[in-house]
Every structure is written in structure tokens, then in C-alpha cells.
Amino acid sequence: EKVIPALLMGFGQVVIGPPGSGKSTYCRAAAEFLAANRRQVALVNLDPANHLADAAGCQIDLRELVRLEEVMELMKLGPNGAMLFCLEYLEKNLQWLLDRLAHFPHHYFLFDCPGQIELYTHHSSVRAIMHRLQGAEGNHLRLCCVNLVDSVHCTDPFKFISLLLTSLSTMVQLELPHVNVLAKIDLLQAMEDALPFDMDFYADVLDLSFLLEHIPDDDPFSARYRSLTAALSELVEDFSLVRFCRLDVKDRSTLAAVTSEIDKANGFVYTHGAHAAQDLVKTLGIDPDALQENRRRHG
Fold first, then answer.
1. What integer is the mean pLDDT of 176-192?
2. Which of 17, 72, 220, 274 could form a disulfide with 21 if both were Cys (CB 3.0 to 4.6 A apart)?
3. pTM for the full model?
């Protein structure tokens, strides 16, 4: 008898970002926060190098299918080549993941992804995997890409423009609803006096020509590549796609703000709108009736 696979329906976040940007920390914090908001959460580890997935409470772990260190040994590959192989292997054996996701009907999925940036800027496997989860074979997961970047890079104009460019490349390559997040904002706030602009400038990606004025002229590297930096800044501004939410995982109000943006991006708010909003404000300790009355008075 032919077995008909269960169809996937629901919502989720595809959490990506460079190494050290706080992806796993965010996933754990988001899982606790969403659970407090009455959502059934399933944490999915898609990093074949993450040997701490069990300790993090992941319900699904890619390392049950393929492990980075084993691929490096068997295929004689370095860590980056082995990572690409692992994601390509998952793409070819995606039914393994589909079968395990089907054990969590009506759950909200958090996909904790690897940190190799080339997986999202120009390699095709992650895009193919997520597109199959969303629309192929009758599946209807509504996913949002959550791109975490270290906010400390705002202190260096070159690094900030670089992360803008990689964020833009990722948005264009993955073709998913997208929320960019400046993580570890508490560390940046401690250095805010050293920034040439306030936090809104970096979060809203305002006129980058002002940022170029703060590139030092006495640095030979800066002088040599100033025109290239200006051209890249114009490219980012021409697309006008990149902006950031601010996140401190220890601050529940920033978690709520990021969650609200994600809910709009993946469509959760449009199917659970009133209840989702009420749960968020209750989690923050705000009286929903008082909030509604305040909105009525002040429009």
C-alpha cells in the first residue's frame, strides 16, 4: 500500500547569520518567549557541526543524518567544503527532514542554521530546501528568514557596509520574507558615545554618504578603496531593502518587537492576529485593556 506523506503546515523562522552572531542563543531565547506566548515550538538544528544541539533541547537534529566531522574524515574535505557537502546531502535526502517535521503538527518551527555565509549569499542548497518546505509536494510552511548580525560592527564603517552588502545578497538569494536583526545591541549601547551617529541611523540604514565621511583619510587602504566603498553603498541604497530590528535577548521588549516584525513577515499575525498581539503584551506585563483604551484615546 502506498504511503501518503503528511503535509506540513504552519509557521517558522529560518535563523541565519555569521559565526558568533548569536543564532543558537537567539533560538533558545525565542523558543522560551514563544512558548510563554502559548505557541507550540519545535527547535530544529540544521548545523551539522553543532554538537550541542541535544543540550539546547532541539527536537530535530541534522547530526542524526550527517555530521561535519565525519564528512571531513571520509571525504578528505576542509570544514567549509564539508559544510557545503552536508547541506547538499540534506537537499538530496530532504524526505528525512520532512518525515521528522511531520511529527510536530501545528508547531512553530525555529530552524537554527550554520554560520557559513556562502550558504546564503550564492550557494543554492538552503534556498532549495526552504522552497520545498514552503510550497513543493503540497507543503505550506510559511517561513521568514531571520538574519542576525553582530551590532558591534556598527563601530567600523567598512564592516557596517560589508554586513549591509551580505544582508542584501542574502535577501536576494534566498527569496524569503526577511527580517534583519542587529543582535547584542546591549554591547553596542555601552559604546554608543563612540558612534558618529545615533542608533536609528544604523537600524534604518539612512543616508550612507554621511557614513563615508567618517572613513579615515590617513589609512592607505581606506584611500585606495574609497570609490569602491562609495559604489557599494550606493548599490545598497538603490535596492532600498535593508533595515534592522534591534535585539538584546535578555530584554523581553526587544524580543517582542522582533517577534512582531517576524509575525508580519511570515503571515502569522494575519491568521492569529488579535490573539498573537494580546499574548505579546501579556508576556511583557502590560494590561491589554489599558493598552486598548490608550490607543482609543490617542488614535
1. 90
2. 17
3. 0.86
